[in-house]
Amino acid sequence: MESFVRRCHFVAASLSMAALLFLAGCGGKEAAATASTEETATDVTAASPASESTITARSTVAQASYESQPSIYGNADATPITNPVVILHTSAGDIQIELFMEQAPQSVGNFLDNYVRQGAYENTIFHYVDPKGFILGGGYSAELVHVPTRGSINNESSNGISHERGTVAMSHEPNEPNSGTCEFFINAVENTGLNYQGTAPDQRGYCVFGRVTQGMEIVDQIAAAAVEPKEGFDNLPAEAIVIQSVEEVK
To answer: What are the pLDDT digits (tens) for 115-164?
Structure first.
């Protein structure tokens, strides 16, 4: 189980641009993600000033374990693994995502078993949008109430998949690479600075576990939405962009 806070700071930059991103993430500490063409190591974060009250959520469901993933999803040595496909039905339109089961089994298993199949993403929002960075969602309701989370997972960022435009990745707390739970982001641009850089906590980067196969124009539309900052949410869309449901189609 884990505690979480009301806001998250996430810095991502592409090419010659650098942007400071404040995100509200699952896990409860302050963080930043900085992406650059020099591929500087970065952190996607979750944070709130010490003066703000900390919200704590508890789940009564036991944490799932994916250490024995082949026994859950088939024998990887004998059976080719089929990548699951989901559709995010949002108030802006549909986004279809292929999930990389073989390269990121814990991240995909967590996303599907702990959240998609439990209906946990229904009526959550994209609470951070940036056309020069990414869109972040899955953690808050339209009322900016954080959803309950389950246990955190191992960061599989060393799987060799780069943060290209249209890739989907897990968010986590700064310098705590194994703290990811429910929040995910979709890269609107190439963000190679978020890639795995090394074994140090601040070099681990963020695990890419899927890619958009249809609906990238919807991602661009969401990323370009007008924002109306509120306390703790500096890039909050002025009009809520809601994840109405997530459909598992394959």
So the answer is: 999 999 999 999 999 999 999 999 999 999 999 999 999 999 999 999 99
State how many domains the chain has.
1
At 124, is the secondary structure helix, strand, or coil?
strand
The Cα–Cα gap between 146 and 129 comes to: 17
pLDDT per position as a tens digit, 190-204 = 999 999 999 999 999
Is residue 58 included in any domain, yes or no?
no
Polymer length of the chain = 250
Cα–Cα distance between 187 and 87 in angstroms, integer?
A: 17
CA distance readout (Å), 23 to 67, 86, 132: 30, 24, 15
- CATH number of the domain enclosing 134: 2.40.100.10
Domain that holds residue 167: 3-49+81-248
DSSP 187-205: ESS--GGGS---SSGGG--
On whether the CB atoms of residues 150 and 130 are closer than 8 A, the answer is: no
Q: Which two tokens stand for residue 152?
A: 């955190």
| One-letter identity of residue 213 | T
Taking alpha carbons only, the member of 21, 2, 27 closest to residue 183 is: 27
71 belongs to a structural domain: no
